[in-house]
Hints:
The protein is of the alpha+beta class. It folds into two domains: 2-45 and 157-230 and 324-395, 3-Layer(bba) Sandwich (FAD/NAD(P)-binding domain), CATH 3.50.50.60; 61-152 and 236-316, 2-Layer Sandwich (D-Amino Acid Oxidase, Chain A, domain 2), CATH 3.30.9. Helices cover 23% and strands 27% of the residues. The protein contains ten helices and 21 strands. The chain has helices at 15-26, 54-59, 67-80, 108-116, 154-162, 215-221, 279-283, 289-303, 356-369, 393-396; strands at residues 2-11, 31-35, 50-51, 93-95, 98-102, 123-126, 143-147, 150-152, 169-171, 177-181, 187-192, 200-209, 229-234, 237-240, 249-252, 258-266, 272-277, 313-316, 319-324, 338-342, 345-349. The longest helix is centred in the C-terminal third of the chain and has 15 residues, at 289-303. The protein is elongated, with a radius of gyration of 22 Å. Mean pLDDT is 90; it is low at 60-65 and 401-405. The site of flavin-adenine dinucleotide has 38 residues, from helix 1, strand 2, helix 6 and strand 19.
Amino acid sequence: MRTHDLDFVIFGSGITGLWLLNRLQSAGFHCILLESDRLGGVQTMQANGIIHGGMKFGLGGLLSPSEDAHDMVGTWRACLEGRGDIDLSEVRILSQAQYLWSEPGMMADAINFLSSKLHSGEVHAVDGEQRPASLQHPDFKGSTYRLRDLVLDVPSLVATLARPHRERIYRVDYRHAQLEVDDVHQTRSITITGSDHELFRLRPQRVIFAAGAGNAELLADIGTLKPEQEARPLHPVLVKAAQLPPMYAHCAGADQRPRLTITSHIASDGSMIWYLGGELAEHGALRDDTLQIEAAREELNTLLPWMDWQGARFRSFRIDRILPVSDSLLPRRTDQATVERVGNHYVTWPGKMTLAPQAAQQIMDSIAEERLAPLYEAPPALPLPHPEQALPAWETLFGQGPRHG
Ligand SMILES: Cc1cc2nc3c(=O)[nH]c(=O)nc-3n(C[C@H](O)[C@H](O)[C@H](O)COP(=O)(O)OP(=O)(O)OC[C@H]3O[C@@H](n4cnc5c(N)ncnc54)[C@H](O)[C@@H]3O)c2cc1C
């Protein structure tokens, strides 16, 4: 059997695996990325694309801005401007900001908190024509804030991260990648079986599990159930309607979570689609499709009553958000990626797309600490296919054709 020695094997081609592939290759390590389905991940390809600054993290928890989250927006901006660790200058930026609006009397705590941050550069109160078009109606009586977030087009992000490394990204049926593991959880080799090619073996220095929901099964393969992960079911809704203005905003809820999150995406047929998340998607996990679409219509009619939804088409879909379980009594921090070392593996869940660069940095720091150096030449081309890029729900649920790259 042929054996290929190499530095890293990465499992999973979502944002985490692709970011790491870029960082490791730039540092001189030779890597192979194995994907069991399509390029671009499961959660990643269906993400809204918001790169959160501190405020959303604050709203999800203790109303405190996070320094880490603040840094992440800076890290992403540097990459988008072509002066960061990875060149993302080809990525489409959908919006330079996400807004937050509230109805009068709503979420007094959060509004007080936001008001206290008005001079910090994190958040600005906006009025009149500075507000998103859907909030410029004379009947709108609430407050609007501009957050220091970005919204990215995820398909173009995935294509940009994958482009320099397409020949190192392979599709392999999960059942055809067998990990040979010793009794201290070290993967000694990975044998790739399959009926249409000869058996071969990969022998990496280190293995990275960046497989989202698939991490649990990979951990079981190396003989451990820790760290544990949980799946939080979501039921987002998409709306397609004629002449929708772009909208990138959270509506503040009664508690500290956004009641409704809206981002806008242009499908390959040129139509504008609103992507509805927030509490609607969280609470909607218990509703069937019909009830969820009714709930979405009701929210839009309540929160934006001046908009006309006649003729709008609604679709919903289900997806799990995968998060590691905190192993202490304290709640898991939502502003930090999780990276765990198990044997010669790194296992990672960023928790948010925003935090993928942080997960990668933690792994790069750990590699530097243990003075791991590139040892091997680039492996030859393997007899495996390269995966096609996945599509976001707004390209598939309304019956349009695919968009490439
Ligand atoms: C609806 C929704 C909206 C979101 N919106 C945002 C947002 O706006 N901003 C934000 O910061 N975060 C957002 N998130 C969170 C963010 O999407 C995730 O934290 C992030 O995308 C996780 O990326 P990942 O690469 O770790 O996992 P995934 O994107 O899930 O990718 C994992 C990949 O591993 C592959 N895989 C699985 N098992 C195996 C195996 N055994 N071998 C090989 N490959 C395998 C899968 O096929 C998949 O391609 C959102 C999440 C959801 C669910």
